[in-house]
Amino acid sequence: MTKLKWLGMLLLAILLVGALVACSDTSDGEDAEEVSAEGEETDSDSGEDTEGEEASGEPIKIGVLASLSGALESYGMQTQRGFELGLEYATDGTMEVNGRPIEVMFEDTETQPDVARQKALQLLDDEGVDFLVGSSSSGDTLAVTGLAEEYEKIMVVEPAVADSITGSEFNKYIFRTSRNSSQDAVAGAAAIAEEGTKIATFAPDYAFGHDGVAAFKEAAEELGAEIVLEEFVDQNATDFTPNIQKVIEAEPDYLFVIWAGANSPWNQINDMDLASRGITVSTGAPDIAALKTMNALVGMEGFTVYYHTLPDNEVNDWLVEEHKARYDGEVPDLFTPGGMSAAISIVEALKQTEGDTDVDLLIDTMEGMSFEAPKGTMTFREEDHQALQTMYSITLEEDDELDYPVPVLVEELSPEDTAPPIMNE
Asked: What are the start-end ranges of the E strands in 182-312?
C-alpha cells in the first residue's frame, strides 16, 4: 500500500468516528430538546415552543394623547398622573400582564385636532401601539377616532365628553371611560330644572359645548324647564362681557354654564353680579384651579364628576393616599380618576385575555365588562361602549382650611340614574 493511499484511509476513518460521536450526542439530547428548522429550541416532551414564550414577553404598547400644553394643560397633566397611577395599581406595581411589560408613550396634542391626528399616526405607524388613549379635548378626540377604526386598534376615550364620540361618530374600536355630555346633563338638570323654570345656557363654541347644551336642553325640558337662551362663546375668548349681557337680557331664573379650560368666565360672571338680577348660576363643579375663582358662588347647587372626598371605596382611598405621597401633598383633581380608570380598564381586559392583544378578542372582552375604579364600579355598556358611572349632586360650601369652596355631597347619582340614551343607532 502506498503511503498516500494509507493516509487517505486514515483520514476517512477519523471522519467516520466524528460522525458517530455527533449522532450519539444528538440522540442523547433528543429527550430534552430538539432543534427546529429555524434553529429555535423547543421542548419535545411538553410540545411548548420557546418562541411562544418569547412572544409572550413582547411589550404591550399604549399611546396616550393629552393636552400637555395650552389652555387644557392641567387636564392633560391630571390624566397623565392618573393613568400612570392606574397602571401601577392594576398591575400591583409589576407594570406587566401575563409576562408582557407595559410601555406607555405620552404625546401632547396641543389641543389642536390636526396635531392630535399627526401624533396618533406617529404612535400607530412608528411605535406600533396596541392601544390609544385620549384626549383632553373632544375636538382632538374626534380627529383621531377614525384612525382607531382604520388601524383596528382599541381607543379608550378619556376625558373627552362629546356625545358624538359614542354616538354619531361611534365605531366598534372606541370605548369610553369618561362620562359623556348626556351624563353631565342628567346630573345638571336634576339640580335645577323643574316645571316652569327658565334657564339660559353658556358654553364654548365647539363639539364639547354644543353636545353639552343639546343634552342638557333635552334633560331639562323633560323636567318641565324652558331654555330661553343658548349662548355659545369662542373657546379662546378672554372677554365674556357681551355674552353675559345677552344672558342678563334673556332674564332666566338660572344660568347653566358648561366650560372647560384655563380661560374660564367665572370672574366676569361674578363681576356682573347676576345674583342681584335674580339669576342663579349653576354648573358642574370644575377642577380645583377653577374652584378658586368661584368663591362668590358659595351655596350653588350643581353636580360634579369627581371630588376626592366624595367616593367611598378602596380604589379611591389608594388614589388619594398615593397621589398625596408623590405630589407634595396634592390631592387628585377632576380628571385624575379618569386617567386611572382608563388604565385599569385596559389592564383588566388584558388580564381576562391573558395578555392577548388580538383586537376582536379585546372587543368581545370589553363589551359589558365591569371593573372597579375610583368612582366605584364602572361598566362598558355593550351597545355603545360608554362607561356607566356614578355622578354626584352637590352644593358648593366654604372650607376654613382651603382657599376655595368645596363640593359637598347632596346625593350620589348611580350609574343607572345617569345612564345616557344610546345614540349610535
From this structure: 198-204, 226-233, 254-257, 280-283, 301-304
